[in-house]
Design goal:
This protein is of the alpha+beta class and 113 residues long. It is 30% helix and 29% strand. A 5-stranded antiparallel sheet has the order 1-2-3-4-5, with helices on one face. Strand 2 and strand 3 form a beta hairpin. It starts with a helix and ends with a helix.
């Protein structure tokens, strides 16, 4: 009986972890972006100088010592989503922002799913 219960628990645990790969959407209408999974092919590479002023201001405000090294843009539901690669003292960081300079936290959404 103990082996049966342990087997059931192991299977339930395995199923829990495998379902974590599912993509969830956010139904909160205040957040303009719903998809969690993004691929490089979805974005068009742009020059860093082409980033909107609001995005550049957010980078300057929140990442004082960072250097923007690359940028991409994607249109999603009529809105622009920017993917930004920063160099933070030799460490690479990728961020996502909307055209108004609001950060989109993709990592937290992936952990929640």
């Amino acid at each position: 009986m103990k082996k049966l219960m342990l087997s059931i628990a192991a299977i339930a645990l395995l199923l829990t972890f495998t379902t974590q790969a599912q993509v969830y959407t956010n139904s909160n209408s205040e957040e303009p972006f719903k998809e969690v999974v993004e691929t490089e092919e979805d974005y068009e590479k742009i020059e860093v100088s082409e980033l909107p002023e609001a995005v550049t201001a957010s980078i300057t405000r929140d990442f004082v010592e960072a250097t923007t090294t690359e940028a991409w843009v994607k249109e999603k539901d009529g809105k622009s989503v920017y993917k930004i690669k920063l160099d933070l003292n030799g460490e690479e960081k990728k961020l996502y922002a909307d055209a108004e300079g609001n950060w989109i936290d993709k990592e937290d959404k992936k952990k929640d799913s």
